[in-house]
């Protein structure tokens, strides 16, 4: 089970996060997201914890949601799965159809 952990202090380490979740079961991986793409490497204040089983993950969520870590109340929820664009139905999104229609002039002959 993949778990999203938000509102983390920028000083929180992956080891600290792992220690919090280990009480509830086997932790497969811990990742704290950072700004490596813009070069600073500064933590973003959220991360993901992967637990070995769904029941362990559910117990961790129930017990850690709203807990105070490093003077911040953290948000702990089940992470949404990444979308698979191949499996999604093609969405036909059009802008306002009234604006796309050609304007027609109608002349009324009396």
In DSSP terms (H or I, runs of 4 or more residues), the helix count works out at 3
CATH architecture: 2-Layer Sandwich
CATH topological fold name: Alpha-Beta Plaits
Order of helices and strands: EHEEHEEEH
Biggest pleated sheet: 4 strands, antiparallel
Q: In which order are the strands of the major sheet placed?
A: 2-3-1-6
Quick one: CATH superfamily? RRM (RNA recognition motif) domain
- Average per-residue pLDDT, rounded, comes to 83
Percent of residues in helices comes to: 10-25%
- CATH class, anyone? Alpha Beta
Instruction: Domain count, please report it.
Output: 1
Beta-strand percent range:
25-35%
Number of E strands = 6
Can you describe what's shown?
The strands form two sheets. The protein has a four-stranded antiparallel beta sheet with strand order 2-3-1-6, covered by helices on one side. The chain has one domain: RRM (RNA recognition motif) domain (Alpha-Beta Plaits), CATH 3.30.70.330. The chain is 22% helix and 27% strand. The longest helix has 11 residues.
Keywords:
two-stranded antiparallel sheet; 110 residues; alpha+beta; elongated; Alpha-Beta Plaits; four-stranded antiparallel sheet
